[in-house]
Amino acid sequence: MEKKEKFFLEIYNLGIIKFGNFTLKSGMNTPIYIDFRPIASRPNLLIKLSDLLIHNVPSYDFELICGVPYAALPIATTLSLRSKIPLIIKRKENKGYGTKRMIEGIYKAGQNCLIIEDVITSGDSLLKTIIDLEKEGLIIKNIMSILDREQGGIENIKKKGYNIRTLFRIKEVFKILKNKSFLKKKEIHMIQFFLKKNNTKNIQNKRISYEEKKEKISHPIGKKLIDITLKKKTNLIVSADLIDTKNILKLVNLIGDRICGLKLHVDIINDFSYSFINYLKKISEEKNFLLLEDRKLGDVSSTNSLQLHYGIHKISSWADIVTVHLLAGSMSIQNLNIPSNMGLITISEMSSYGKLSNDNYIRKVLNISLKNPEVIGTVAQRKVDDRLLLFTPGIHFYKKENNVGNRYIHPIQAFKEKGSDFIIVGKAIFLSENPKMMAEEYRNAGWKAYENEL
Fold first, then answer.
1. Cα gap 284→425, rounded to integer Å
2. Per residue in 314-344, pLDDT tens?
3. 240 lies in the same domain as 371
């Protein structure tokens, strides 16, 4: 234990623990952020860490080593060099060119692979790595992590039948730091709050209800959307990517009773007019659903404001919700002068294959979303903070990838794995032979998926 303590105090001086307000990859907010990547710049510490890890592996019969991308990669590489056991590299996503392989290196099916992770929170990243390795026919018996945040991740991994060990647990390292007087009073208070929160609320396997979510949402449109959802028992938003007003109105008259929102791309409509908007608005009021314009504003604030208020579409005069990209930064959605009854949805992460957004970008978008009072939620492919509504596109009963790079998931997967609040379905409904019946099937599936996660 003395050797472990001494090592942790060494790496602590690199600034691996930060205090403040952070959003993790899982979407959870935390006052404590732990980052082991600075160790990569200290070869002597990498060697010490790899020796500690190998010493704690319960059995030494593995033939390959793989680090969870990307923070654990330098650690796994050092471990491979020290043990002389081959390294394989797991990509976060397919390159889209060359061999398009997810696993790089020399290996064959049936080999036993040791997985290295840096920090365990929910275990989601680790499980993705396990799945991709097992797809290649590799056997996973042992997993080693540096630190367990004690938020349910270790338990989640063990429940799935994997043997996982960790060098440190969060309570253990805080005790070390406190005993050595390394912590300030403010930091001790943050830690006590964190540990208390962990004790009362472990990693969220169970989602909160719409009623509970409504209490956390501040924007009136967000609250209204939840009210509609509860009254109609539907979390279904239909994407009407149609180019003629006649077909849009025909679809809306068929499915309006089964949806909580209708998503439009008005710039693709050939015969757009205000008489169409007025009629659509009237139907939305009669059948009780919101209008979502998927404009994906992505310019500077002044241009975004012009696109909302002017031009032939005058979006701010009729849309309840508008989508925005945040490539231009937080200022791009400030001073838009939108009506109080209009909300924004940010695009954190799209469902398309080969998307360019990385975890760092997604975290920044989520942080900006939480700080802007006009944002009611976000589009993402992961669980997010409960103060944001989560919208999940790319929903289809049959998991598949189409010829333009869109990935589809089942409603059950959206609620169970992504923590979704609202599912967005397009072609599966409006291209079906019976849109009314298909909308009802998706409405039922979405509502049951939500209830099953409570």
1. 18
2. 999 999 999 999 999 999 999 999 999 999 9
3. yes
* Residues carrying an active site annotation: 294, 296, 299
Q: Tell me: do 64 and 195 sit in the same domain.
A: yes
Inter-residue contact 53 to 115 (CB < 8 Å): no
Q: Is 57 marked as a binding-site residue?
A: no
Q: Is position 159 annotated in a ligand binding site? A: no
Q: What is the gyration radius of the CA atoms in the chain, in angstroms? A: 24
- Total domain count for the chain? 2
What is the tens place of the pLDDT at every residue in 271-290? Answer: 999 999 999 999 999 999 99
- Mean per-residue pLDDT of the chain: 89
26 marked among binding-site residues: no
The enclosing domain of 151 has a CATH number of: 3.40.50.2020
Is 273 marked as a binding-site residue? no
Please indicate if the annotation marks 119 as binding a ligand: yes
Is 166 assigned to a binding site? no
Per-residue pLDDT reduced to its tens digit, 54-99: 888 876 689 999 999 888 999 999 999 999 999 999 987 655 555 6
Instruction: Say yes or no: 191 and 244 in one domain.
Output: no
Domain assignment present for residue 205? The answer is no
Instruction: Please state whether the predicted TM-score (pTM) of the whole model is above 0.70.
Output: no
Q: Binding site annotation covers 125? A: yes
Query: Same structural domain for residues 131 and 229?
Result: no
Give the CATH number for residue 330: 3.20.20.70
Does one domain contain both 48 and 176? yes
Percent residues over pLDDT 70 in the chain: 93
The residue range of the domain holding 78 is 2-200
The answer, yes or no, to whether residue 221 has pLDDT greater than 90, is yes
pLDDT for res 201: 44
CA angle 51, 54, 57 (to 5 degrees): 150
User: What order of strands is seen across the sheet that includes strand 112-120?
Assistant: 103-104, 87-90, 64-67, 112-120, 139-148, 163-169
pLDDT, tens only, 182-212: 888 888 888 887 777 665 444 445 689 999 9
Judge if 273 and 418 occupy the same domain: yes
Per-residue DSSP letter, 395? B
Residue 153: name the closest of 119, 129, 195 by CA. Answer: 119
The number of beta carbons lying within 10 Å of the beta carbon of residue 25 is: 17
